[in-house]
Amino acid sequence: MTAAFAPAATLQGRALAVVEVKTTGAHPARDAIWELAIIQVDAEGCVAERLHWLFEPGVALPSQLLSLSGLHPLELRGQPRIESEAQAIAAAIRGRILVGHNLRFSLAFLRRVLPDWNAQRPQQLCTQRLARAALPELASAGFDALCAHFGITRFFRDRAVPDAEAVLALARHLLQQVAPAALGHQLRSAARPPLLAAERFAQLPERPGVYYFLGDGGAQLYVGKSRNLRRRVMSHFQNDHRDRRSLQMVQQIRDVQVAITAGELGALLFESAEIKRLQPLYNRRLRKQRELLTWALAGEPGDLRIELLQHQALTPGLRQAGLFRSRHHARQWLLEQARQRHLCLRVLGLEEGDGACFAYQLGRCAGACCGEESRQMHDTRLLASVEHLRTQAWPWSGPVALVERDEQHGLTQWHVLDQWRHLGTVDRFERVEPLLAKRRGGFNLDTYHILLSHLRRHPNMEIVLL
């Protein structure tokens, strides 16, 4: 056996498994591992065994990968799939501290194939994060930069075995420069992203609010909300292997900031407003609302007319159905209603022509276009289809404030609302009046759904009429 660490430099006498994976790309759900190396180090600091696998990845190997690694596709022909070796891999790391450089990336792939990952929950030591703690003066904690700094040579680059040997040598150098207390902190913070300072993690409160993930230069990566900020933020770092976007995001996080609210509703409203204001890179939903459309219905069954209008153009008393962010979504919804209820596209204005429509010939229209069905029967079915999408009427005669109280921390907030519009939130009641005077903000679909859902779930919420 080869000595790797002096006994005092081992992790409190724990056995290690140095892990290095090579993948076909950066997407854990689409890409796959084609090479894996594990170096087992015993509790005395000696290398006990070196394990190496080649796998048939089941996906095409990018030409850049072949060039960098020197791999020939024939090397992988006839090799097993990684799933067939999952038990052996799990046994190789069981009971050991996992060591790797940018370890989160490697584990994002391994978690998907190891059968007992959740049961094992091994401690982890990332040499990238360890280097940032031990050598903060270095401009880069990248693998190549650290190998150059310590004079670690690799007889072959971008292959699992030589890179695992280099990680082992790198860990040896770094562990000699880290105090035992700091080392224990590195192990406890295994879920922390490599570029995020430990202090920010420790400061996260267990309170409702909104959190911000920031990248280089304060770039807005993501805005989210939760009733427990600490638990929710940590969940991102435990589940970043589920898709490529979340994995990429976590790798870029440099800082986390939070804004406290008195309760869940405040967090929901503030998150919605902040996403529209900041347009974070990784938020998919709640983008800024460019237009809001609705189907307006005029007349009575037998002479019912339907027209797509801007929501703000609706006149009082006019029937309306649905709130849509685009003309495409509005049209698709009406086409689906026509299909389900045998409505006529020609009568609905979605198709031109005279006489029986094409859908009638296919048995998909009940015949309002050619006299086989009365317009009244057709329009009655149309009204039934839109009933569940009618916008709820504002239940109060004027503006109100919904009150949320965090008694434990002495925080009360008043959410000032009028006609489903969120005029603002204040933490002192005397600040309500200026919000009413300004009356800023138009109708917003996200706010409408947030308020409607919250009021249905909390019918006894404290309400102040203004």
From TrEMBL:
Q: What InterPro entries does UniProt report for this protein, alphabetically? A: GIY-YIG_endonuc (IPR000305), GIY-YIG_endonuc_sf (IPR035901), GIY-YIG_UvrC_Cho (IPR047296), Ribonucl_H (IPR013520), RNaseH-like_sf (IPR012337), RNaseH_sf (IPR036397), UvrABC_protein_C (IPR050066)
What keywords are assigned to this protein?
A: DNA damage, DNA excision, DNA repair, Excision nuclease, Exonuclease, Hydrolase, Nuclease, SOS response
Bilayer-spanning residue ranges:
none
Query: What does the subunit comment say?
Result: DNA polymerase III contains a core (composed of alpha, epsilon and theta chains) that associates with a tau subunit. This core dimerizes to form the POLIII' complex. PolIII' associates with the gamma complex (composed of gamma, delta, delta', psi and chi chains) and with the beta chain to form the complete DNA polymerase III complex.
Q: Name one GO biological process term.
A: nucleotide-excision repair
Q: Which GO MF terms does the UniProt record name? A: exonuclease activity; nucleic acid binding
What's the short name of a Pfam family annotated to this entry?
GIY-YIG
Q: What Gene3D superfamilies does the record tag this protein with? A: GIY-YIG endonuclease, Ribonuclease H-like superfamily/Ribonuclease H
| Claim: Transport is one of the keywords in the record | no
> At the top level of its lineage, which domain of life is listed?
Bacteria
Q: Which residues form the GIY-YIG domain?
A: 206-284
Instruction: Report the SMART domains cross-referenced here.
Output: EXOIII (SM00479), GIYc (SM00465)
Q: What is the name attached to this protein's record?
A: Excinuclease cho
What does this protein's UniProt record list under function?
DNA polymerase III is a complex, multichain enzyme responsible for most of the replicative synthesis in bacteria. The epsilon subunit contain the editing function and is a proofreading 3'-5' exonuclease.
